[in-house]
Amino acid sequence: MSAVTLASLVQAWDNAAVSGGANWQQNGDYTDNNNPELVKYQGQEDDKTASFLHGTEQKVDFADYADGYVFYDLPLNKLLLRLGVKGKPVALSDADFDAYVQQTGQQVYYRGWSGRTSAQRMIDAQYNHVGNGIYGDGYYFTPWHNTASSYARASGGSNGVVQRMALAPSARVISYSDLQQRMGAMSSKLQRSLGHTGGGSGRTYSPNDGEAQAALKLGYNVVDMGSGYMYAVTRDAFIVSRRLTR
Fold first, then answer.
1. Do 232 and 216 form a contact (C-beta atoms < 8 A)?
2. Helix (H) or strand (E) holding 239
3. Strand partners, 137
4. What pTM does this model have?
5. CA distances (Å), origin 132, targets 53, 90, 204
6. pLDDT digits (tens, 9 = 90+) for 142-188
7. Which DSSP state fits 56?
8. Phi, psi (5° rounding) for residue 172?
């Protein structure tokens, strides 16, 4: 990556911090660069959102979005495809990643993958390919290398790899407790629909209640579960190092 591009990333981080204040990343203003379909999803009434989520189940055919990788049959994957949310993470060399972290003062996080193909899919695929999770579907990550490495070994054996990452300037973070509270204030119809997209679908883990879909509606693409654990709803929430380790 050129120094100019690295400088622009750092400048974007600094500009956001200055214009948005100390807690700018907690502002629910993630719009995928003003993606009109996402903005519409975020602004519509709760009951219309419930109908939209229900309709997404029937209207999205993964075959229409072939990009060389297999999609997990998850409601969040279908929602991101229907909304056209497909931004990629910024992938840096190890040296540029270190410079980005040092110049922005960010936390380094880690993600364990079952193999190099999975890690490259996150960087190179045309679309998001999220996984399933207990607290919402998405890309789970941790500030502890040992935790990520243990997951990589458990899921991929000797092929498992670990990737370093940091939050991008576009990342917007909501705490899991705040998300739950705000979901509780949504209409009963939307709560039922979100519940179906989560554990009720039989395609992800209980007690998933569609938190990722709710976070996206509220303008967030990262959920902070506390104790350092987070997950991203969209992969453009990350700056990642291309170097993969064990």
1. no
2. strand 238-245
3. none
4. 0.96
5. 17, 23, 5
6. 999 999 999 999 999 999 999 999 999 999 999 999 999 999 999 99
7. H
8. -130, 125
- What does DSSP assign to residue 242? E
pLDDT at 86 over 50: yes
**How far is Cα 143 from Cα 226, in angstroms, rounded to an integer?**
11
Per-residue pLDDT reduced to its tens digit, 191-215: 999 998 877 677 888 889 999 999 9
Distance (Å, rounded) from C-alpha 222 to C-alpha 234?
8
3-state secondary structure of 230: strand
Residue-wise pLDDT for 124-148, tens only, equals 999 999 999 999 999 999 999 999 9
Spatial distance between the Cα atoms of 129 and 180, rounded to a whole number of angstroms: 24
Please state, in angstroms and rounded to a whole number, the distance separating the CA atoms of residues 106 and 19: 18
CA 33 to each of CA 129, 170, 236: distance values in angstroms, whole numbers, following the listed order = 20, 9, 11
Whether residue 173 contacts residue 220, with contact meaning beta carbons closer than 8 Å, is answered with yes
Tokens of 146: 């040992």
Which sign, positive or negative, has the C-alpha torsion 28, 30, 36, 40? negative
Tokens representing 137? 């579907």
Q: Phi and psi dihedrals of 224, rounded to 5?
A: -100, 110
**31 token code pair:** 């719009």
Place of tokens 């100390």: 22
